[in-house]
Design goal:
Blueprint (H helix, E strand, L loop, with lengths): L2 H15 L7 E18 L8 E8 L4 E8 L2 E8 L3 E10 L4 E8 L11 H4 L12 E9 L2 E6 L6 E4 L4 E3 L3 E2 L4 E6 L1 E2 L3 E15 L8 E17 L2 E11 L15 E2 L6 E2 L1 E13 L4 E16 L2 E19 L2 E17 L2 E4 L2 E12 L1
Parallel strand pairs: 9-17
Antiparallel strand pairs: 1-2, 1-3, 1-24, 3-4, 4-5, 5-6, 6-7, 7-8, 8-12, 9-10, 11-14, 12-14, 13-14, 14-15, 15-16, 16-19, 17-18, 19-20, 20-21, 21-22, 22-23, 22-24
């Protein structure tokens, strides 16, 4: 019998005996976000004047998408203003838990700050961890999430001279492994997290076949305490070679390769953040926050430390449901790089302005 006919018959049988599927429900949404800021960049170098600039632009995290549900099966897609694909995944509720397949936020994302500068930085570079949206297979059991995430095999390393080296000949035997636990009550929420990744690559420094392994580890927590209309949030991130996992940081947090012998040195990172806020009413909410990060590496007995910080004060003004303006003033700084005890100042940006947002 012709293979095409067999295929048609099999398809017809499946359609005949399959149970009726529930109609899918679509919920379309969007968010338009404008950044309107004036910034003054101080290069922190003697004899070099600061530079003042105006940012008046659509934020890259403006988005449009839809949530889809059909019984125990669901999904979501979302595009940013790049345009770029932000979310594309499906879910299946199998009873004890939910399986997610596709591109979505990994368990290494915490949003307990509302800092809006730098397209909603949220202190993510200084203590509130951000790993972004990546292809993964994730399983959720109530408050616990476990994900096997696409490996980050083409990454930027640093060499001992301070320049960057892109690893292209690399191999990952395993996906990145990440997990988090979300606990919430009427008084507080807390989210501990843990992530690990490894890959091998050819350094090519002393030999065309010299193999080295990059191992990354990150752990920490974020959380918030509610005291009536006031709230306090905090975050802590620690680990080694976190930049090689794709964790966003204000410092250089990737592993460093010694240009003399091709050996790798772990780059250890510690970051923390704190947020304090007060909701006066349904229109006005006030918030201030501070975050600090330090990454340190030792190459052939020479220590290099890269530090940075950010702080801000803001007010979230809700003009109507879904219509938000957030005036904010703050400072973001890469602070300094200290090598062998000698410190070199980096740039510092003072900014003032607002984010305008309409959700629809």
């Amino acid at each position: 019998m012709n293979k095409a006919i067999v295929g048609i018959l099999i398809t017809a049988l499946i359609l005949t005996f399959a149970g009726p599927s529930p109609a899918a429900e679509w919920t379309v949404y969007g968010s338009a976000r404008m950044a309107t800021f004036s910034s003054d960049v101080d290069p922190q170098v003697a004899g070099v004047s600061s530079d003042t600039d105006t940012l008046w632009a659509l934020q890259g995290n403006s988005r449009i998408g839809a949530n889809v549900t059909a019984g125990d099966v669901g999904g979501r897609f979302e595009y940013g203003s790049g345009p770029n694909l932000r979310h594309l995944y499906g879910t299946w509720n199998f009873g004890p838990g939910i399986i997610l397949v596709g591109q979505a936020y990994t368990p290494l994302n915490e949003f307990y700050s509302n800092q809006v500068y730098e397209a909603d930085n949220d202190l993510n570079k200084e203590g509130m961890i951000f790993h972004g949206r990546r292809a993964q297979i994730q399983v959720r059991f109530s408050k616990f999430e476990l994900a096997l995430v696409e490996p980050n095999t083409q990454v930027t390393l640093l060499n001992s001279a301070g320049a960057t080296v892109t690893s292209t000949d690399s191999d990952a035997a395993l996906p990145q492994i990440m997990m988090s636990y979300h606990y919430t009550s009427g008084l507080f929420t807390i989210d501990p997290f843990l992530g690990w990744a490894t890959y091998d690559f050819t350094t090519g420094v002393t030999s065309a076949t010299q193999q080295e392994s990059v191992d990354s580890l990150v752990y920490g927590f974020a959380g918030k305490v509610y005291l009536g209309p006031a709230f306090f949030g905090a975050g802590l991130v620690a680990g080694s070679n976190v930049g090689n996992m794709g964790i966003t940081t204000r410092t250089l947090s990737n592993t460093v390769i010694n240009t003399a012998d091709g050996k790798l040195a772990d780059n250890d990172t510690l970051a923390y953040a704190a947020v304090l806020g007060y909701k006066a009413n349904d229109i006005f909410k006030f918030e201030g926050g501070y975050g600090y990060i330090s990454s340190e590496v030792d190459v052939a007995g020479v220590k290099t430390e890269d530090t940075g910080f950010s702080y801000y004060i803001q007010s979230t003004v809700t003009l109507a449901p879904g219509v938000i303006v957030v005036p904010e003033v703050g400072i973001v700084s890469n602070d300094e790089i200290k090598t062998g005890g000698v410190a070199t100042k980096q740039s510092e940006t003072t900014y003032l302005g607002a984010k305008w947002q309409i959700n629809f």
